[in-house]
Amino acid sequence: MQRHSARPLAALATIGTLVLTGCGTESANAGAEAASSTGAGRTIHAQKFMRLTQVHDETGMTLLEGPTFGKDGGLFVVDVTAPEGEPKVMRVNVGKKTLRAVHTDGRGTYTSAQFSPYDGRLYLSDFSHGEIVSLAPGGGDKRTFFSGEVDGAQMNPDDIAFDEAGNLYVSDTRGLSENEAHGRVVRISRDGTKATVLAKDLAAPNGISFDLNDRGLWFSELTEDRISYLRLDGEGKVTSRHTAIRVDGGIAQTDSIAVDADGNLYQGLHGRPAMAVYDRHGERLATVELPSRTEGLESATNVAITPGGTKAYMTVSGPDGGYLYTFDALAEGIRQSNGG
Fold first, then answer.
1. How far apart are CA 44 and CA 16, in angstroms?
2. How far apart (Å, rounded) are the C-alpha atoms in residues 134 and 184?
3. In whole angstroms, what is the distance from residue 53 CA to residue 189 CA?
4. CA quadruple 325, 327, 329, 333: dihedral positive or negative?
5. 189-246: per-residue pLDDT in tens?
6. Pure H helices in the chain
7. Residue 3 lies in a domain
8. Distance of alpha carbon 231 from alpha carbon 310, whole angstroms
C-alpha cells in the first residue's frame, strides 16, 4: 500500500500484501455559512471529537472506516490497516469519550461494519480475502458468513448494507488494482448461501446505502466520482439503474455513503477531509469541512448519525492518526445513517 503522501483507499488493492507482510477546535454548531454562487451549498464546520488511532509502524498508516451504532448505543469503528494485535474493530462510548478493543486477528482487512437487522450480529467486509464475517454484538464468536467466488470471480468487498429482511448488499471493488471497470454490486441472501450480481462493469464501487424507503440502492464509484441509483423490486431484483449525481471532487474521490431521515446523502471524500451532502434529487446542500488550520488528515471516509438524533460522527484519517469529528446533520439518523 502507498504511504500517507498518497491516497490510502485507492491503494486498497495491495493492502492484503502489506498487512500480511509487512487539529482544530471550532464548534460543530458554528452554523451554516451563506450559500456560495458555485452551487456547493453551505459549509458545515465539524469539530474534533477524539483521536482513536495512531499510524501503525507495521503498516505505515491508519485508516478508520465503517462507523455504525449498536443497539447498546456504542459506536463501532474499524481500522482498515491495523496489524495483528492492534484493535481492528473498536467500540466508542460517545458519552464518556472512551474506547475499547472489540476484535483483532492476524488475517482480516476490514473495510466496513454493519449490524444485521435479522440476527443482530456485527458484519465486517474483509477486502483482502473476499469474505464477509460476523461477530457477536459485543465482539467475539467470529463466523464466516460468505466466502468464495461470485460468478467465477472472488470479490474485493468494500462497503455493505442490509435490507430490512437481513439480506446483504456489497460494493465489490474488483478491478481496482488494474484500473479496470470490473467492479460489481452483489446481493447475498441472509443465510449466506446465494450471491447474485446486481450490477457489473463498475469503476471501483465503494459506498453503498439504501434510500429512505428501501426502494433502491445508492452506490458510489471511486474512480469515476459518481453516484448511481439501483431501483429494486420486492425480491431484491434490479428494475432500473442510472447515474444520479456527478461529484465535483477535484483531486478527491467518492468514498462511503450514508442517508438520513430526510433522504439526504452524505458522501465521504477520499483524498480530502470533507463530506459532500446532497438531497435525493442531486442538489448539493452542504459541504462538511474540518477547521481551516487542520493538518495531517487526508480523507473523511464515512459517517454515522445518532439514531433519532442529529449528532454525526465522521471518520477522518491521515498521517496524524485516525479521528472522529462531529457535526450536526441535516436530519435525524436512521438505519441507513450508519455509513454503508
1. 36
2. 22
3. 34
4. positive
5. 999 999 999 999 999 999 999 999 999 999 999 999 999 999 999 888 999 999 999 9
6. 15-21
7. no
8. 27
- Give the domain extent around 25: 9-337
Residue 236 included in any domain: yes
Angle at 77 between CA 104 and CA 230, to 5 degrees: 115
Strand 42-45, strand 284-289: pairing = parallel
Count other C-beta atoms under 10 Å from residue 27's C-beta: 13
Backbone angles phi, psi at 17, to 5 degrees: -65, -45
Q: Is residue 2 part of a domain?
A: no
CB neighbour list of residue 213: distance below 8 Å, 6 or more residues apart: none
Tell me what pLDDT residue 142 has: 95
Quote the CA–CA distance of 264 and 277 in Å, as a whole number.
7
Q: How far apart are CA 340 and CA 338, in angstroms?
A: 6
The answer to whether the beta carbons of residues 67 and 312 sit under 8 Å apart is: no
Give the CATH number of the domain where residue 170 resides: 2.120.10.30
Task: Give the number of domains in the chain.
Answer: 1
Q: Is the pTM of the predicted complex or chain greater than 0.85?
A: yes
Within-domain flag for 4 = no
